[in-house]
Amino acid sequence: MNSALYLLENPLIRGLAGALIVVGMISVSVLILIWAERKIIARLQHRYGPNRAGKFGILQTIADGLKLFLKEDITPAGVDRITYSLAPVLCFALAMIPFIAIPVGRNYIVADLNAGILFILAVASLSVIPVMMAGWSANNKYNLLGGLRGAALMISYEIPAGLAIIGILVQSGSLRLADIVEAQRDGWFILPQFLGFAAFLISAFMESARPPFDLLEAESEIVQGWTTEYGGVKFALLMFGEYTHSVLSAMLIAILYLGGWLGPFDSSLWLIIKALLVMIFLMWVRASVARIRIDQMLNFGWKVLIPIALLNIVIAGIVRLHYY
């Protein structure tokens, strides 16, 4: 009994257990969401979508994953082998790390950090590194163009996303995500912070490179962009990491603007439902909006979103002074 208690109280054991739980839960969630997205988009486009592997095609994502993991791991000639092989692992790791600071409920969190939102933004900003590594190391012009596009987009849209969150910090008075949720008991921040919400929503999902904002890949322009020379397990890790960023964005939007786990009764179920609704909205956007040009996206980020985010900070400051 004493040895069991020691293991539970050991920070290293608790950290490893928490990490395994996070990776397991996010992995299962991503697999289900990929299947759901394919079915939803198919219905929006008057198609059936996956309907062969398992009931309603529920096993299709698992079949695709097995196919990728069982493929021969081919390394093209002329690549920088270390950087080429390290990029998928780093992409997957950096996508998972922010979830340790995401509170699923009031007492359900791996690492309850006082500056949790800063930690998440700091780690998320590193996601440009594996994109550049994959783009440069593959010795392919399409990979390089995709990597450069990724760097330009991520740098451009991190600024309005960070500025949009400042309004949240002004209203909540805390950097701790649980405190931000509790500050919304009298009303979600989506209404007083609507400009910030719009700026963060657009920034987060453009930075996640989801269609129709997937200019890092842009099959109609640069083949598969930064992942062109990748296949098998490496490609699976890159795509899994990229999709996980979308899940992280949906969770953050639910926590920062939609009251997190607050509802008729406090429950982690409300957070999951809100994040799922955000993901469904993005699926609908993917099925409905055509891909725009890279210069249009960059201009929109610098000339529209940043001024909107700055205006939101001014409004949040005025409201704070007026009521407090």
UniProtKB/TrEMBL annotation:
NCBIfam families: PRK06076.1-2. It is found in: Membrane. Pfam families: NADHdh (PF00146). One of its GO terms (molecular function) is NADH dehydrogenase activity. It comes from Archaeoglobus sulfaticallidus PM70-1. It comes from the Archaea. One of its GO terms (biological process) is aerobic respiration. This is NADH:ubiquinone oxidoreductase subunit 1 (Chain H). InterPro entries: NADH_UbQ_OxRdtase_su1/FPO, NADH_UbQ_OxRdtase_su1_CS. The chain crosses the membrane at residues 12-36, 84-104, 116-138, 150-169, 189-206, 243-263, 269-289, 301-323.
